[in-house]
Design brief:
The chain is of the alpha/beta class and 270 residues long. It is 45% helix and 14% strand. The chain has helices spanning 3-13, 39-51, 62-66, 71-84, 100-113, 127-134, 153-156, 165-177, 192-202, 219-226, 240-243, 251-267, and strands spanning 18-22, 57-60, 91-96, 118-121, 140-146, 183-187, 207-209, 234-238. It has an eight-stranded parallel beta sheet with strand order 2-1-8-7-6-5-4-3. Helix 2 links the parallel strand 1 (18-22) and strand 2.
Length: 270
């Protein structure tokens, strides 16, 4: 699957810019799933199947699986998404950042072991730390630029010459690193002014935007700042507000309602 082509197709086919983040926390699972050996896969599969027609992509966060020794369930989940919902790209949220042969192994982990269509990567070790991911044709490489957490300003807002560090990252990625058309950027919904600035710098480059829902990002401000001229260009992520909208046996149906409402709220400002 070519990530950027699949993303464009999903934007159109599902009329959606919504990315559902898959951050499974067993402590928040409904009672009927507690203690089941495959409960993480079962929970995420139910969410995926209930929301697939409302999203442009899914984004499993690797730490939530690895902390529970559930990497095999992550492999199973991504395989299920590809088989049951072909065409919906999967972003492995891993935020990897290392150099040389280690980065090559991280790329192999994301794309060969897990079968992800894209991976999040930390750009602060420079271009050579990103090239091993770009060596996988068609795979998406989504680089941290202006993150949604308050502490992101500690470094990302530093002056580096005549621009902020996050602006330099955006410029490097869009103008020098994206030679194969595989790159995208992470820009948090909690900073709409910076979303607008990044969009100004990078043109049509896709942006993964975390921070709506539980983190309080404003949908209207995000769309006005970040959408492209054709009303796309964004993967607006919501995780907890959808995953844990329901507490009972009907959790997947409740999650679907939350996903549809979020998609419609986004579309209102496209």
């Amino acid at each position: 699957m070519n990530f950027n082509a699949a993303l464009r197709a999903a934007w159109s086919a599902h009329n959606s810019l919504l990315c559902v983040g898959l951050d499974p926390d067993p402590a928040k699972f409904p009672a009927h799933l507690q203690g089941r050996p495959q409960m993480i896969f079962e929970f995420c599969k139910a969410i995926v199947d209930a929301t697939a027609d409302a999203v442009c992509c899914f984004k499993p966060q690797i730490a939530y699986f690895a902390a529970q020794r559930a990497e095999a369930q992550l492999e199973q989940l991504i395989s299920h998404i590809h088989l049951a919902h072909p065409g919906i790209p999967v972003i492995l949220d891993a935020k990897r950042g290392d150099i040389g042969s280690t980065a090559e192994q991280y790329a192999k982990e994301a794309f060969a072991r897990y079968g992800a269509d894209a991976v999040t990567v930390n750009p602060y070790l420079g271009r050579d730390s990103v090239e091993p991911y770009l060596a996988w044709p068609g795979k998406g490489v989504i680089l941290l630029c202006r993150t949604s957490n308050p502490g992101g300003s500690d470094l990302q807002f530093l002056d580096v010459g005549d621009e902020k560090l996050y602006e330099r990252v955006a410029r490097l990625v869009a103008n020098e690193w994206n030679t194969s058309g595989q790159c995208a950027l992470v820009v948090g919904a909690t900073f709409p002014a910076e979303i607008a600035r990044v969009r100004e710098i990078v043109g049509e480059l896709p942006l993964l935007v975390p921070g709506i829902g539980a983190q309080g990002g404003d949908i209207e401000a995000t769309l006005k700042a970040g959408k492209t001229k054709n009303g796309t260009g964004l993967m607006i992520n919501s995780s907890r507000a959808i995953l844990y909208a329901g507490k009972g046996a009907d959790f997947a149906a409740v999650a679907r309602k939350a996903a549809l409402q979020t998609r419609d709220d986004i579309n209102r400002w496209r």
